[in-house]
Amino acid sequence: TRAPKSQLAQVVGDIGGVQAQVMSFAELQIAVRVDCTPADIREALWKRKTLVKTWLMRGTLHLARSTDLPVYTGVLGAYTLRNVKAWLKYLQLTEPEMNNLFQRIGGALDGTPVTREQLITVVGRGQTAHVRQILKSGWGGLLKPAARRGWLCFGPNRGQSVTFVRPQSWLNEWHELELDVANAELARRYLRAYGPATRRDYSRWMGNFPGADRAAWAVIEKELIDVSVEGQPAQMLAADLKSMRSHKSHESVQLLPGFDPYLMGHATRDHLFDAVHRWKVSRVAGWISPVVLVDGSVLGVWTHAVTRGKLQVGITPFAPLKPRVIKAAGARAETIATALGVTLDRVTLG
To answer: Where are the domains of the chain?
Structure first.
């Protein structure tokens, strides 16, 4: 059962945001969990501002609940660059010069959206020719660290051009957090969404910033409990164990979109499918396929296409699927068609 549209932002917060390098996938990641349409998600982003788009975990674009952004930036801002020396060598800048650029980026923004070109003009004003050349050629690499520090996020597109704003001015509210407070809160939210898990899992989800997992686990150490998952040691919040024990499991079939959070939360995905199928899910260039999830395990992949207002879904199972799974997958495809505002044409098995 999907959550009501009124809980759209809450659900995005509960799952730790959705990866948004492919916006259509991000919208589907939300729509399979919430009774909403892509238009509702865009309204939450650009009008209600209950969602925000920016670079977060793993240096990738995400949609996050707006009130959570200070938690993310409170932690990620402390681990802006994994290898500062390599960055300085690549940019041919001193560390003060690089930090000054980050600050100028944030200082150039407020609540009014500006295009990338406008931002380059303002930040480059009065800078050396070398710095202006960096802004033109290596711009994206400078924007990500600034975003992780909470100095910029995306505004609504202006035609074909992306725009940026200062989140403290753009969003409805903002509360700065001390590093220890942010570390504790982000670790708790991660474990509520993805636990049981390990420090290594958390580090991978964050982006492999050295020491980030150790710092997070240290501040919530008394809240954790050791567990074993199929013989593998892990940890979870002690407060979640009671509710997990009382939870009644039920049969579940889902069609999860590409880059779905369910597949992004752990260091490996070996607990989700047999290793022989890894290449079908984790593809080249970091591409994560849409998957058929049955009772928590990945049993296949799927694709979709919309032609003349009709949705076609193709499922490629790893092994023959039971009739009840096929029937349930068809129901999930109907849900996706409704969210997209089209009619389900057919579901085929490959």
So the answer is: 1-177, 179-247, 253-349
